[in-house]
């Protein structure tokens, strides 16, 4: 498995039977490929689908939240933007998985702007991380060696104190009241490797090998 | 029965400095025929309100490319780098709004509300310059209602009364915007005799004009 597949397959283990889940663009989208066969999970796309299916080439009438041709599963529904964000903001989404530029040990994240360089906008990300019951960040552990998991985010925030879990190709971390706990490390790396690649202070009690690898 | 208008009459309703809400999500459900006519009219200093900035050659991006836009209010402009460049050069004003907040601000205007209270954007740049209210121990940003002069509605199937339902994911912001503008113009994909009352999404009193364009099926 490559880095992206490791991250996506590990996050899929967090999905519970019956969950309603929103996946962001990029690595998060891959999580749908690893849903355990004994679990029934419904995916939401914020542009207006409950019951999002796989990608469909050349499909023009049904698109996912990235604007790519997609499909809707049996039992699904097309919804307007207010209903879509009623799901998101009203606490009806069990898990949202999304990428980030930076995450910090207090569970704050930055993902929508690099001032002076890149200003794509927040899209639905601020609503998703504020409203979903559980927020999982899927990203590479560093940006070509530069830590992305920090003591405190330096870029403008998407939200403060909303992240519950961070999954990278190296490790699984959880934000708890007392800080960022290192829970699992991929067998290709040591705890020392993870500490070196992380600027945030990691609370290390008992570390397990990464599940599902 | 709604007025079916022709292109000339639609263009005659456009003027410099007006605000347009344009339905669609990354151009899925955007009325490209109406955008053609806005381009043709060459009206200037428009404020464009929509989910995103479209693409340089598609959706509201075409109005930007034609130098007709003074301000964009959207949740995302990443798919249209032209807007990003013009923003850096301070040639266009951009107000980025979280997508759910944008939808609720428009809904609020359509429903006659002054605004909405939301935790989305707290402790971020989004809260700058806005009132923060504490209600029952929880902080909220006061986000003001948002309306516009005209809504351009796409992705719809209309009936002969002007009722609308929508085609698949093309629904998105369209039915919300149809409630929040002084003039609502729809370019349906097709017109049928009658939509079952159980299935109407936008009832006809919200719709002022229907324009059948070249993009209609």
Characterise this structure.
The complex is a heterodimer of chains A (213) and B (217). By secondary structure, chain A is α/β, with parallel strands linked by helices. Chain A contains 5 helices and 16 strands. Chain A has one domain: Glutaconate Coenzyme A-transferase (3-Layer(aba) Sandwich). In chain A, strands 1, 2, 3, 4, 5, 8, 12, 13, 14, 15 and 16 form an 11-stranded mixed sheet that branches. A 3-stranded mixed sheet of chain A has the order 7-6-11, with no helix packed on it. Chain A has a two-stranded antiparallel ribbon with strand order 9-10. The N and C termini of chain A lie close together (9 Å). In chain B, the strands form 3 sheets. Chain B has an 8-stranded parallel sheet. The two termini of chain B are 21 Å apart. The mean pLDDT of chain B is 96. Chains A and B meet through helix 3 and helix 4 of A and helix 4, helix 5 and helix 6 of B.
Structural key phrases:
heterodimer, A: 213 residues, alpha/beta, Glutaconate Coenzyme A-transferase, eleven-stranded mixed beta sheet, three-stranded mixed beta sheet, 16 strands, 17% helix, globular, B: 217 residues, eight-stranded parallel beta sheet, three-stranded antiparallel beta sheet, 6 helices, 14 strands, 27% strand
